[in-house]
Task: inverse folding
């Protein structure tokens, strides 16, 4: 793996050259196959990872084995750093959704940099605030929106435009929405029958009526947002 600029990580963008050089000297390249875990929940936080290529899902699993994905990290993002102050270990697991290349950064070195360089510490705090906002929005969606509306929101929030290329398969998408693959497939079918989208392939969805989808998500189509079509 070619040398990677650690400044790609938002919390390291304003770190000093000397600080980054010390951290880079302690870091090492890593590769993970699709489906492999970078780390699991509750494991000691000895390393965090800067994603160079590929996608990594942050997941939590219930006692019954149900998995929920609350974030998918891509190139330039760190994985594991939100648990840096947690003595009980990683708060979530990190699983490769594709083949992944990453830089393993020692947690101790990263923490030392944050504590010695206020700009980096401030950027870290800002990043945590953004993560909390995303989690709050996700929790609200799980409580107030049924699966069909959660799926519709995830589709129109994709920045790609009218043709959405899903970055994950329907099983992984279900884990992100708190549902099974079969339930996601059925919800996609209902959105298509409404004329909101057209499913062009398992991973390619065309948005047909963005405004109508927005109205539907807000529950302004004559049906309470918690109700499920056909019931």
Result:
């Amino acid at each position: 793996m070619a040398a990677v600029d650690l400044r790609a990580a938002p919390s390291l963008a304003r770190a000093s050259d000397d600080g980054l050089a010390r951290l880079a000297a302690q870091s090492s390249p890593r590769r993970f196959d699709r489906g492999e875990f970078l780390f699991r929940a509750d494991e000691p936080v000895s390393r965090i990872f800067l994603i160079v290529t590929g996608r990594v899902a942050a997941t939590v699993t219930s006692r019954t084995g149900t998995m929920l994905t609350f974030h998918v990290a891509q190139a330039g993002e760190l994985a594991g750093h939100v648990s840096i102050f947690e003595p009980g270990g990683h708060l979530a697991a990190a699983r490769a959704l594709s083949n992944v290349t990453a830089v393993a950064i020692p947690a101790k070195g990263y923490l030392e940099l944050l504590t010695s360089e206020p700009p980096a510490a401030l950027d870290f705090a800002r990043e945590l605030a953004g993560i909390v906002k995303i989690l709050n929005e996700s929790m609200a969606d799980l409580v107030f929106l049924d699966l069909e509306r959660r799926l519709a929101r995830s589709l129109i929030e994709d920045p790609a435009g009218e043709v959405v290329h899903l970055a994950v398969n329907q099983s992984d998408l279900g884990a992100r929405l708190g549902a099974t693959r079969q339930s996601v497939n059925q919800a996609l079918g209902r959105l298509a029958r409404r004329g909101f989208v057209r499913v062009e392939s398992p991973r390619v969805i065309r948005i047909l009526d963005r405004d109508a989808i927005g109205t539907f998500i807000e529950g302004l189509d004559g049906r309470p947002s918690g109700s499920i079509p056909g019931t």
Observations:
- The CA atoms of residues 10 and 123 lie 7 Å apart.
- The longest helix spans residues 118-144.
- The chain is about 35% helix and 25% strand.
- The radius of gyration is 20 Å.
